[in-house]
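note to self: dont lose this again. the chain is below, predicted strucutre after it. 302 aa total, dont forget to put it in the shared folder this time
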Amino acid sequence: MPKAPRRPPQLRGRIFRGSVAVSRGLLTRNDLRSAAWRPLFRDVYADARLRVTHRARCAAVGRWLIPPGAAIAGRAAAALYGCPTPSRAAPVDVLVPKDSRIGPTAGLQVHHGEIDLGDVVERAGVRVTGPARTCWDLARWLDLVEAVVVIDALLARRLTDVSTLREYALARAGQRGWRSLLRAVDLADAGAESPQESRTRVRLVLAGLPRPQTQWVVADQGRFVARLDLAWPVFKVAVEYDGLWHDDPEQFHRDRRRLNRLLGGEWIVLHVTGKRLREDFDGFLAEVRAALRARSRSPWTP
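---
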């Protein structure tokens, strides 16, 4: 029978530096190669039984891998602020000073740039770009839609606000990315409640439709009827994103019953799924245009 791998109690359920574990006599280099431990980055390991989240990987990078003056940045910084995270295997964004010699590192996405003193904060012992700097980097590093998705989440958590971000961008006029941040902020909305809602809204606006209201409440004689993801109240047209609600399959049916109460009234409610957004956005866009055109009381033609 093969020998069970060593699992010192001090390392169970933890992420740790391999070299430190070896120097303290807890493990040998051969032990680190066993199935008991999972390599995350160079010299960083985790208990193989531990579910390692993207946030945990970001924290490990911030504690042990980045050079002095650097910080966790971009989507990784947003994850540490509690925003929706990329996949667990996604590389961790790191912002390092221009003169830093750190090169490509497995598991990291290294960005070189100027870092002002006010651009970095500390969270749980990890250096992270502040919310405004995080938004600026997102606007520079991601496409417009995906940048707005994360900025929406930061706004929703009240970590920053639109006026602060505009001032931050204007104070850096002439630097690369300041116009990109202004454009992203103009499209951002703190009312978005999921990344897919953000993607749907921004893509519709970029396609030329008027900007919808987020989380619009419909009432009947003062009584709550429904809250809509995206709505054009003047036209009584709404869009609902159909996805997973906190792993509660019954929520889908409750929401559909709620929305059905609108169908007997004056509202048109259009539904969209992630698959439709990926594979047939043009078809969905045509349906929204047709609904708005049918309800238009002005010469405007969407």
